Amino acid sequence: MPGITGIIAKEPHKRHRRTLDLMMDGMLHELFYTSGTHVQERLGVYAGWTCHEGSYADCMPVMNEEGTVLLFLSGEVHADRQVADRLQGEGHLFTRDDASCLVHWYEEKGDAMFRELNGWFSGLLVDLRLRKSILFNDRYGMQRIYYYETSEGMFFSSEAKALLAVHPELRRLDPRGLAEQLSCGCVLEGRSLFAGMSVLPGASVWTFPAGGAVRKESYFAPREWEDQPALPDDRFHARLRETFGAIMPRYTRSPQGVAVSLTGGLDTRIIMAQAHAAPGALPCYTFGGPYRDCYDVKVARKVAAACGQRHEVIPLNDEFLRDFASHAEKTVRISDGNLEVSGAPEIYVNRIAREIAPVRLTGNHGSEIMRDVRFLRARPPREALFNRDLEPYLRQAVETYGRNSRGHPLTFSAFKEAPWYHVNRLAVEQSQVTMRSPYLDNDLVALLYRASPGVRASEATALRLIADGNPALAAIFTDRGYGGTANPVVSKAARTYRELSFLAEYAYDYGMPQWLASIDHLFSSLHPERLFLGRHKFYHFRVWYRDQLASYVKEVLLDPRTLSRPYVQPASVEAMVREHTAGLRNHTTSITRMLTMELVQRLFIDHAPPPRPGVTMPQQARLLHRC
Q1: Could you name the CATH architecture of 3-175+187-220?
Q2: Alpha-carbon torsion angle 257, 422, 100, 109, nearest 10
Q3: Gap between the Cα atoms of 161 and 332, Å rounded
Q4: Could you give the CA distance from residue 556 to residue 554 in angstroms, rounded to a whole number?
């Protein structure tokens, strides 16, 4: 995915330039990326970057008029127009639609600037006047930075593979990180999958003075928002309307063009209701599956029509399944092993979405931030697939999750679940498009801390916000049957039916009980999946692992290399593959985990991360130094 990488060396040395080039090699995933490198040898700074062509960060390095302040940025900062107006009024020269204003903001504010930044970003700022470098990120940690400290200095990168490429000692799995990934779907508390490699905490501002010791500081703590007084409900609702109206222009404007990834739920509908976009100005699309138009597609089509916006369906079809091995490998490689192979559809659909608009506006994080919905949970493996040596770490993972799940629910959602769990899917999505969501806007999250628990636990707040922005949208049922203007009996019936269909689909797919799997197998020739699947989800891995992807599953998991891994119980793995591909039992989750970890082994542990397929070394050299 687009990002930054580099070295802040204690002593300058020419070999660091070669090391930087090696770190960059594995980060060029697409031909539409731009990239470059820059060296300030006197300060021991060796920096590189990749970004989407034409994006907010496609202007690196940015510098002030004197060339004494330089910035390397990944991601976006959503500054209000007043900031740019003020800086230009003071005589600063920059382009308003990219990151070039930030060095001038820093000139005005100094280190206090970082606290004012809003968005998902990470960066390296080099101040030649004060002979210091500053490594920083957003307050949530949504633009991840891996780092590794050695006697030579600090090595950092948006992608772990860049560090693995130049530090072979890191190419081993950390058992604690592995256990957390297997139990929670992510690594917790700033650890990584790789022993010795860590993740920069959110709101970091780490200062490296030339010849001095690093200062590791934070510019924000969640308790500042937790300590705010609650607002009366009516006043909160009024402030919520005002805040949404104020922040939406930050997310809907871009010279590249923005499209809404529209679903049938509440969160993207709030965006449509509050954006007040002119007809045709905000195109929409929805991801669809192979069996039928799911509720997301049906509802999104109505919502887009009510707003006068164009709507398209991006289908996940047989073409995806035919090339699944490539998509799975790319998913694991880009996410540094943090997103499971079941996230492979994101590569496929977001590549198509980029053709509609390079910027994708989503409702991601809305249910967590607005309504306390929680996706990050501890579910350790139940099957005896793993060596007993891993069991203490699996128990520790549950304990670590339990400790972190206590406290303010919004702090958990915004500052733990989002940067530990959801960021893994974000990394893959960002490899294809620029991702945006208003639900982690600083102004909105700060306000939501002031809501009473009852307000945030209910769908009523979201429905009220939709009705305030566009009453026509409030009249349309959501995919789960909320909203609408029908009488209470009809509304309740619609909600009950759609909830039951959701549960039925889950029970037929990921959650199929073992006793039902054997019965389903007896009727497989009739393809009963066509009756149950596709109403709520557009991908269906239980059936795919059994049928279309069975050969791939066997090829990877029954490979002698897989069965010889020190943390694997080979007999259990063989039984699992045999039972699932024969349709006798449901091992969807376990197969997903095993496929993912085996790809991690092959891509990152057994061998150094390879250069991007399809790009020769001379091509890579040209891309590396493109500015």
Answers
A1: 4-Layer Sandwich (3.60)
A2: 140
A3: 11
A4: 6
* Residue 106 confidence (pLDDT) above 60: yes
Size of the chain, expressed as the number of residues it contains = 627
Are 25 and 165 in contact by the 8 Å Cβ rule? The answer is yes
Amino acid type, 46: Y
Backbone angles phi, psi at 286, to 5 degrees: -140, 140
Tokens standing for residue 442: 């600083």
Query: pLDDT tens, 330-364?
Result: 999 999 999 999 999 999 999 999 999 999 999 99
What letter would DSSP give residue 7?
E
- The pLDDT > 90 percentage for the chain reads 78
CB 46 within 8 A of CB 20: yes
312-337 tens-digit pLDDT: 999 998 999 999 999 999 999 999 99
Q: Could you report the per-residue pLDDT of 387-396, keeping only the tens digit for each?
A: 888 999 999 9
Q: Which sign, positive or negative, has the C-alpha torsion 259, 457, 491, 475?
A: negative
**For the purposes of burial, counting CB atoms within 10 Å of the CB of 186, is it exposed (0-12), middle (13-18) or buried (19 or more)?**
buried
Cα distance between residue 563 and residue 313, in whole Å: 41
The backbone region for 107, taken as left when phi is positive above 0, alpha when psi lies in -120 to 50, beta otherwise, is alpha
The structural domains of the chain, with segments of one domain joined by +, span: 3-175+187-220, 232-365+410-474, 488-607
Q: How far apart are CA 117 and CA 143, in angstroms?
A: 13
| Single-letter amino acid code for the residue at 410 | L
| pLDDT at site 381 | 87
pLDDT at 526: 77
DSSP-derived secondary structure for 338-364: -S-GGGTHHHHHHHHHHHH-SEEE--T
pLDDT of residue 486: 67
Residue 209's H or E segment, with its range, is strand 204-209
Residue 94 DSSP one-character state: -
pLDDT at 625: 30
Cα–Cα distance for residue pair 125/132, rounded to 1 Å = 8
Q: Other C-beta atoms within 10 Å of 425: how many? A: 18
Q: Which fold has domain 232-365+410-474?
A: Rossmann fold (3.40.50)
What confidence score (pLDDT) does residue 79 get? 83
Ordered alpha helix ranges (H), 80-143:
81-89, 102-109, 113-116
Distance (Å, whole) CA 273 – CA 206: 40
Q: How far apart are alpha carbons 213 and 206 in whole angstroms?
A: 10
- Give percent above pLDDT 70 in the chain: 96
Residue 517's pLDDT band (cuts 50, 70, 90): confident
Token pair of 355 as six digits: 């053709």
CA atoms within 13 A on the CB side of 405: 14
> Residue 61, preceding bond cis, omega within 30 degrees?
yes
Query: How far is 610 from 212, CA to CA, in rounded Å?
Result: 36
- CA distances from residue 27 to 21, 49, 274, 403, 419 in whole angstroms, order as listed: 10, 9, 37, 35, 20
Q: Closest Cα partner for 79 from 98, 62, 66, 94?
A: 98
